[in-house]
Amino acid sequence: MPILKAVLTNKTVIFCTIIVFLYVKFVWFVGHYRKKPKPVKTKRVAAPAPAPAAENPPAEGGDGGEHPAE
Fold first, then answer.
1. How far apart are CA 25 and CA 70, in angstroms?
2. Cα–Cα distances in angstroms (integers) from residue 46 to residues 28, 37, 42, 43, 53, in the given order
3. Residue 64 zone, left/alpha/beta (φ > 0; ψ -120 to 50; rest)
4. How far apart are CA 48 and CA 46, in angstroms?
5. Stretch 44-66: mean pLDDT, rounded?
């Protein structure tokens, strides 16, 4: 037991264990890495502006002129 405790608490063993762990994580990351597909850029087609609503509709029953008869 004292030998096992001495080995596990050795700074070199702890440092090597951390380095191996980080290396394995990096290899796993690279092996499973997938690039995200680039988004397809589409041009937006501007919708035609709606026709302006008639603010002053022509008077009904009139002669169709702009000015009423005097």
1. 93
2. 47, 27, 12, 9, 20
3. left
4. 6
5. 66
Query: Locate tokens 């380095």: which residue?
Result: 19
pTM of the model: 0.47
Q: Which amino acid is at 51?
A: A
pLDDT at 12: 95
Tokens for 35, please give them: 């690039």
Q: How many residues does the chain have?
A: 70
CB 14 within 8 A of CB 20: no
Give pLDDT tens digits for 14-43: 999 999 999 999 999 999 888 788 888 887
Helix (H) or strand (E) holding 48: none
Structure tokens at 60: 């009904």
